[in-house]
Amino acid sequence: MDRQQIGVKLTIDGLGLPFKINIFQDRLIMQKSVYLAQTAGVNLGYYYHWYLYGPYSPSLTRDEYAIATDISVGLDESEGWNLDDKSSQRLERIRDIFAEPDRNKLAKKLELLASVHFLIDRRQVSKVDTSRIIATLKQFNKDYFSEEDVQKALGELKTYGLLQA
Amino acid sequence: MASSKRDGFDKLVVDSIHGDTHLKKRELEVIDTASFQRLRHLKQLAMSQMAYPNATHTRFAHSLGALAIMTRIIDIAKTTGRVVLSRKQQENLRLAALLHDVGHYPYSHLMERIDKVKLTEEQVEGAQVEGKTLDRSGDPYPEHDLVGTFIVNKQSDLIEALGGKKRAKEIANLFGPKRPTKSKKSLQLSKLVHSSLDMDRLDYLLRDSQATGVPYGQIDINYLLNNLKISPSGMLGISEKAIPAAEQLLLARFFMHRTVYYHKTTFGMEEVCRQLLRRLRSQGKYRIPKDGKDIKELVTSKDLGTFTDAYVDRIIQKAVNDENQVVQALARSIQRRRPPQRLKEVNILRSSQEHNGHHAGTIFKLNCKHNLYSLAKDFDIPLEQFILCETPPLQLEKRGPLVAVEEAMKTNWKEEEELIKVFVTGEDEPKSLVDIPYSLLSKCAGLFFQSFRLYVVYEGEDGNDVISQLRDRVGDWDKP
C-alpha cells in the first residue's frame, strides 16, 4: 500500500465501514463513501467524473484492488497509521450517514447523495430546483429516485454540512 | 527521404518514428506557445537515461507522435464512413492528442507521485518516527491529466491558440479526467485518446523502444491501424485477424515495463529522488509546492515554464549542500550517478485466483519491517538511506486481476470500455479481446507481475565489502 492507499483504508475505517470490494454493490459503496469523505474535506486526491452510477474515480478503483490484494495476504499496512485530527473530525461528523446496516439500502442512499452533490457541485443543476435535479437524474437513467428521495438527500447533505444551507 | 506538405496542412515535421507529420495552422499555433514548448524540457523516460544513455527523448516529440497516430486513426474513421466526424471534431481530436501530456510534472510520474511515497523509516519497526500521521487536510498533488486541464483552461497563450475558452474546455474534456459522457459518440471519441489501443500507448512503446535500444517494445503499428474498425454504434476495435498484433502490443507493454520502466537502476534512482523530494517538502525547503493547491497555482501562473526537469535538477544541486547528512547522501547519489545498490529483489507473477495467504513479496516486506532497523544499526548506516519500495502491480490488460469477466460485463464496469475490442467475423459489435476464448489474453489477463526491492545508498570507501555483507544478511528475507 502506498500513502494514498493507506489514506483510503483509514477513511473507510473512520466511517465505520468494512473494507469490502467483492461485489459491485461493495465497490459502489466504496466509491461513493470516498467521494463523500472528500466532500467533507478529507482530501484523498481522487478526481471523480460522471459514470453510470454517479460520480466515479478510475484511480480509486485501481487502488481499491491494490488494497484488497494486500489485505487478502495479511498485509494491512494502514496499521499504526492515523489520519490527522482535522480529517478524523470531519469523518466523525458524517459517520452517521453510513450507519445503515442494510447494504442494499446503503448503496442506493450513497449513490443518490453522491450523485445529487456532484450535479450541484459541477453546476449541472441548482440545489433549489428539485424538479431539475430529478429530470437530470432521469436523463442519466436514474429514474428509480423519487422527488421525495431527492428532497431527503438534499436535506441530509445540508445537515451534514456537505452542501451549504 | 523526400517529403512535402499535404494539401490543407501548413507545416511538415519529419519524425524518427512516424515519418512525415503534417500540421495545421492552429496546431502550429498551439505548438509555438510557451506552455507547449515546456514539453521540450521534460524527458519522456525521466531517469532512464541513467541506464540507457540515448533515452533522452522528450514529451514534446511524443506529443507530436501521438498527433501523427491520431491523424491515421481519423483517416480510417473517414474511410470506413461508419462514424461521421465533423471537421471540428477531427480538429479537436488532433488537438487533444497533441495536448494530452501537457500537464506532466518534472520527471513525469516521479514528482507526480510524491504523495504516495512512504519513507523507509515509516515502514519498519523500531524506528523513531514522529507519529505516523497522514495529513489529508490539504489536497494531494493532482494527476498529470488533471494538471493538463488546468493548463489548457487557464494559460492564456493556449486559450488564444485554441480559439477561446470554450474550445479550450472542449479539448481539455477529451484528454482530461472529466470526459464527456452524455453522448455515446463523444464517449468513443475520448477512447481514441484513452484506451488500451490509444495513440498514447502506440507511440510511446515504439519511441521508448527505439531510444533505449530495447527491442521488446516494437509493435506492428501498421497492421493494427490498417485493421482498425468502427461499429455502427461507434465502438472502436480491430478485426479478428489482427488479434496477434494486439496481443503483441499488450505483451510489448508488459516487457517494456519489466525491462525499461522497472529497470533496477532507473527505478532505484527515481525512488531515491522521490524520497528526497518528499523529505525536503516535509521540511518546507527549496519552495517545493506543498500540496495540490500550490501545484494548481504554479501551473496556471506565468512560472509554468520553469516547471521542467531542471526544476528538480536545481533542487538536487541545492540538496547536495544541505545541512542534513541523509539529504546530502541521497542528493549526491543522483548528482554523481552513484545509483543505490540493490540488496535484494523479489519478483512475483501471480494469478488473481491466488490471492490468499502470503507470497515471497509480502514475506520479504514483513522481514524488512521486522529486521531492517537492526540491520541499519549493525552496519551503522542511517535507516533513511535504505530504500524499501515496490513496483505497481503490472498486468497485461486494464481489466483488474480480481475482476471476473461476467461481473465486469454485468455491472458495466467502466474500465471495460477501455479494453481492446475485436470484431469477430459476422458480428457488427466488437467484444473484448480478453473474452475471445482462443486469445492469449483470455488465459493471461488475470496475471500480474510485481517487484519488491530493497536498495541502499552507501558512500563508504569499503562499498563492495559492505554491500556484499548486506546482501548476505538479507539473502533469505523472502523466506518465512
Structural overview:
Chain A is built from seven helices and three strands, in the order H-H-E-E-H-E-H-H-H-H. Chain A is mainly α and 165 residues long. Chain A has a two-stranded antiparallel sheet. Chain A is globular. The mean pLDDT of chain A is 88. In chain B, a hairpin with a 5-residue loop joins strand 4 and strand 5. Chain B has a four-stranded mixed sheet with strand order 4-5-9-10. Mean pLDDT of chain B is 88; it is low at 400-413. Chain B is built from 20 helices and eleven strands. The chains are: A mainly alpha (165), B alpha+beta (480). The A-B interface holds A 2-7, 10-11, 21, 23-24, 41-45, 47, 49-52, 56, 58-59, 61-62, 65-66, 68-70, 72-75, 77, 80-84, 86-87, 139 and B 113, 115-118, 123, 131-143, 146, 177-179, 181-182, 292, 355-359, 362, 365-366, 392-393, 400-403, 407, 410-412, 414-415. Strand 3 of chain A pairs parallel with strand 3 (133-134) of chain B.
Give a summary of the structure in a few sentences:
The complex is a heterodimer of chains A (165) and B (480). Chain A has 165 residues and is mainly alpha-helical.
Task: Determine Rg of chain A (CA atoms, Å).
Answer: 16 Å
Number of helices of chain B: 20
The oligomeric status of these chains comes to heterodimer
Largest sheet of chain A: 2 strands, antiparallel
Give Rg of chain B in angstroms. Answer: 24 Å
Please state how the strands of the largest beta sheet of chain B are arranged side by side. 4-5-9-10
